[in-house]
Amino acid sequence: MATPQKNLIEWLRDAHAMEQQAEKMLKAQSERLEHYPDLKDRIDQHIEETLGQQKLIHDCLVRLGDSSSMLKDLTGKVMAFGQAIGGSLMSDEVVKGAMAGYVFENVEIATYTTLIAAAEAAGDKETQRACELILPQEQAMADWLLENLPDITKAFLIRSENPDLEAKK
After folding, report:
1. pLDDT tens across 67-119, in order?
2. Which of 29-33, 37-41, 147-151 has the lowest mean pLDDT?
């Protein structure tokens, strides 16, 4: 039987690995973007937020006498590497990357919503506050992607019609 605190710690470890994966995916996407400056700027901003989120989650784990899972962190990084390689092979990389980013942000939103409830149930106000700081950042990124996906798509379509322009990144 797992206590609320044990579940919370395990889910914090999952969240840390998720943020490691997010960092790797975002950096790979940012490095490849050449023709979509607004998207690149927003991704770069979210990379900084992601680094801060990693620290908040790490600090919660340390305070609870635990640490991140090297195996989970590594698995997340390997998955992100595979996604980056797969995305770079697509002719519509920028559109698929923005769509995947939106989906990933919603997974993060669900994760932090769950962590807030778990921290509250475990009586861990500090972890609850940390997750309440992270959640709006994830929501803002998801909202930005959803609002800008039509413009990203249209810009891609315009570029892809012109044989003299590269559209994918």
Report:
1. 764 554 555 444 544 454 444 455 688 999 999 999 999 999 999 999 999 99
2. 29-33
Give the predicted TM-score (pTM) of the model: 0.86
Rounded to the nearest angstrom, the gap between the alpha carbon of residue 113 and the centroid of all alpha carbons in its chain is 15
Instruction: State the residue for tokens 């998207």.
Output: 39
**Residues 53-56: contacts with CB under 8 Å, at least 24 apart:** 53/19, 53/134, 53/137, 54/16, 54/19, 54/20, 54/23, 56/130, 56/133, 56/134
Angle at 27 between CA 21 and CA 32, to 5 degrees: 130
Encode burial over 100-112: b for 16+ CB neighbours within 10 A, e otherwise.
bbbebbbebbebb
Q: At which residue do the structure tokens 């979210």 appear? A: 46
How far is CA 158 from each of CA 23, 32, 105, 135, 166, rounded to the nearest angstrom? 30, 19, 27, 35, 10
Nearest-5° Cα angle at 149, 20 to 151: 135
